[in-house]
Hints:
Order of helices and strands: EHEEEHEEHEHEHHEHH
CATH class: Alpha Beta
Low-confidence stretches: none
Largest sheet: 5 strands, parallel
Strand content: 15-25%
Shape: globular
CATH superfamily: P-loop containing nucleotide triphosphate hydrolases
Distance between the termini: 19 Å
Amino acid sequence: MMIIISGPSGAGKTSVCKALLKEDTELLYSISATTREKRKGEEEGVDYYFISEKEFKNWNKEGKFLETEMVHGNHYGTLKDVISKSEEDKTEVLMDVDVKGKISLCRKIKNTVSIFLMPPTMNEAVKRIKGRNEEEENEIKNRMETASSEIKEIKDFDYLVVNKNLKETVDIVKAIIVAERHKVKKRTGGF
């Protein structure tokens, strides 16, 4: 099973994923590759593989990506090898991708659970983004414009979770994962 966490900037996707990984050893985090600059506190090979534009294009030509997207002027790609590793280890994959990436992945992989994570308000999303102290006002404006179009895609997700409080949000997402693990159709392929 692939668990996809998606939503607009400032929703708390990364924080939720990190907390889930600490609490659920059956999850394998899909580390994406990106051409964007590393943010404060991010680690190479833990949060992302930070690579150059040229390297990204080479990896894409070599067929290393399951899907790629251009987001806010940077390339992001989901690596194929994480899927192979999860099948070998019989673990579930946790992914933090944008809405376009979710759509692309769901077309290619059948057994997915998609969770749209929302900030409690767009003002709170802006506050969270500003709290990173890494983005210019025009970048924040671009992210909020993108958020408006992403929110329109909620109808194509399995679940919607509003992230008011990190602990409560993580508990809700854990409950969704547990429920999905016990779905009869997933276990038996349906009747």
